[in-house]
Amino acid sequence: MSDRPPSPFVTLLNNDVCTLIEAAPDVFQIRFKNRAANAYLVRGSSRTILIDIGLSSNFPYLKQCLDHVGCALDEIDMLVLSHEHLDHVGAAYHLNGRSIIAAHRLAANKIMLRDDFSMLRKMFNEPSVPINVDLWLEEGNLIDLGNFRLNVMYTPGHTSACISLFDQDQGLLFAADTLMPGGVMGGVFGSGSISDYIQSLERLKGLNSKILLSGHGRLSDTPQDDVRIAIQRSHGLLSDTAQLFDALDARSNFEPIMQSVRDLNKLDDA
Q1: pLDDT (tens digit, 9 = 90+) per residue, 70-98?
Q2: Strands of the sheet with 172-176, listed across from one edge
Q3: Of 101, 126, 248, 265, which is most buried with the most CB atoms under 10 A?
């Protein structure tokens, strides 16, 4: 028998494809049962937003969950994309021209240029459909929904473009793939950096967060424990990568690259 206390969260819908959970009043997690990221619906008193949207193949089930809580697609004022990976943004094209689509400027650039490598298109086999990003977000921006005030935090590490959203009054932390329950980290991809990851986690550690709403997996009401464990793991990962770098004899591997750069410079000077 588990010593973990009963979950404070309420399951509203659960089928073979997705689960709809009320994390807090007017805050809903839509959790898909494939590789798609979680989506979050936040219904404010003045406007409604969706945080991430999942894969295009899951879009019908996303609509089903929205219908279950009486939210039509046309009621979504803004879609906030936490970063550029397609498991988070794949279905965003369905909201082109219907809702404001927002992302950090670095993610917006990759998404709009359809940078397939950065977006992991082959990993998720998503259609190559244009996604328009209307609003470029930066650290310190505030998304005011009336009774929710979400502060934009730039939290790179998983990629260079990750953001988290934090409501200080209610302690809601939407951390996407930067932090997951149990201190699980989303991994370091492409433009990401383990040292940036550590700094981002340290920033999350300083928040008075009460509920962690992450990019994958369950909701957590122990975010302080989660971030403490993630910081320990990230330092271990940093140490492991340093040992691997030494084992690979970095100087001998980099020398051919540097020689190629020197050769190219000679051609430019010719």
Answers
A1: 999 999 999 999 999 999 999 999 999 99
A2: 142-144, 149-154, 163-167, 172-176, 211-214
A3: 101
